[in-house]
Amino acid sequence: MAREVKIFSGSATKYLADNISLCYGLPLGEVTVSRFADGEFSPSFDESVRGCDVFIIQSTFAPADNLFELLLLIDAAKRASVHYITAVIPYFGFARSDRKDKPRVAIASKLVANLLTAAGVTRVMTMDLHAPQIQGFFDVPVDHLDASSIFVPYIKKLNLPNLLIAAPDMGGVHRAREYAKFFNAEMAICDKHRKRANEIESMQIIGDVTGKDVILVDDIVDTAGTLTKAAELLMQRGAASVRAFCTHAVLSGQAYERVEKSALTELIVTDSIPLKRKSDKIVQLSSAELFAHAIRRVYEYTSISNLFVKA
Questions:
Q1: Left (φ > 0), alpha (ψ -120 to 50) or beta: where does 287 sit?
Q2: What pTM was computed for the model?
Q3: Same domain, 273 and 296
């Protein structure tokens, strides 16, 4: 008897799960989250999942309740005797803590990997991890999707005459190099030095950007301090235009105001995290089709490699 596939969503990412299930061609499964007066909650499946291949969609952006709800859904699925549990995590939170960069700190992304495994997940699917090596923290398969398959068609439509790809910091060099290789474009690097988290002390541009239509690529835009400072500096160095492509729109604090007042022509993001409000400078592209294709291929045990853009 063929296994049945069922797609469910946590409460934080239902807007995206609805579109993924629509692209997949399957109704989204019903989940109820019971909440108590003291803030505790208990999610449950409203239909049988016994023997099914279950895909649970939930991004783990703040608050931490989103992560805990995902863990509870995984535990509920395991106890309901599902055949296979895939956690679909479009935005994998706590990924910025991936190593001990100073004494006496936690490695949060490793802890999250341990929690997901302990809860009973069989597989993890995510997109543009902040640090790709986080895949190695898991002892279960990880499908690491790449937002370039979403961004590249948009960049092609822009038809920019003097395209240059830039990394907003040294950590983003590999990602920028892949885009530059695909478009056969030149590359620049914005080398920054931080005083502390979310606060830049200095920045310099490595490379000639004169007359170039610059595209900054990054995985996360949080306070937008780095992006807006980089855009300002690039324009001062003679760039014709600056756009930013960032997969995960955390956009906390004064991020919206910074983007709107910045030298950026536009900021392009995916829907892995919902936008808090609209902005004339922010364009949100859907990741639903990418995840729907990946879910189908995982279920059918076929390759997902051709979902990646290759130079």
A1: alpha
A2: 0.93
A3: no
